[in-house]
UniProtKB/TrEMBL annotation:
GO terms for biological process: pyridoxine biosynthetic process. Residues 52-167 form the Pyridoxamine 5'-phosphate oxidase N-terminal domain. GO terms for molecular function: FMN binding; pyridoxamine phosphate oxidase activity. This is pyridoxal 5'-phosphate synthase. Catalyzes the oxidation of either pyridoxine 5'-phosphate (PNP) or pyridoxamine 5'-phosphate (PMP) into pyridoxal 5'-phosphate (PLP). The keyword Flavoprotein applies.
Amino acid sequence: MDTPSVDIQNIRAKYNNSQEPYLLEENLPTTDPFSLFDTWFRDVASQSDLTFEEINAVSLSTVGKDLRPSSRMVLLKAYTPTGFSFFTNYTSRKGHQLEENPNAAMLFYWPKVNRQVRVEGVVEKLPDEMAVAYWNSRPLASRIGSKSSLQSEVVPNRQFLESKKAELTDLAEREGSHAITKPTAWGGFHLIPRYFEFWQGQSDRLHDRIVFERDMDIWLLKRLSP
Ligand SMILES: Cc1cc2nc3c(=O)[nH]c(=O)nc-3n(C[C@H](O)[C@H](O)[C@H](O)COP(=O)(O)O)c2cc1C
């Protein structure tokens, strides 16, 4: 039997904001967007099974010198009062684009809590010591996987990657896992925001949108129409 087609036009999930029904200016924890991000991240973390749900998966958009935007998911590995960090290969497509143009945007979407967060700003490379420290904390299999791949390069077939992995697995067995060192081109980026938008879905479609925009050293807060 054929699988019935999905009636896309009539998909309408109900939003149930039992925790915090509306995003009201007077209830915001503070006028600091990092602290509101922290509150929202903790909220979704407390309601998720972190073994299966990658609440730190975030869409990253970049635009290189050809001015064509491209997006992909990355895993957020840290957020601090200055910005948002992730790790990747500096010679990947995104790496080249960020070299050409450091402006980038991140998009978090947490359907469980009907919330979206947009972050826009400029990236800087993280110091190599941080990349080494994080690389060394990763499981051996992840390190072998990353090191087997020249990210974003064309490869002839899957077997090509499997043989790289087999070579590195042999090396680790012979010399120990410390032999799987961080590739020079593998490192971190830190996105320093100038714009945040916190979106909370409402079933009546009058969604809340609160923007924080940096003006020199202060954050200006405004509400946008949904
Ligand atoms: C949930 C998820 C998490 C990912 N995390 C990362 C990551 O942290 N770093 C990374 O380089 N790629 C990550 N990827 C792979 C990227 O989406 C992408 O395929 C890869 O970075 C190459 O992108 P580029 O060719 O645009 O540079 C992830 C993919 C998914 C689906």
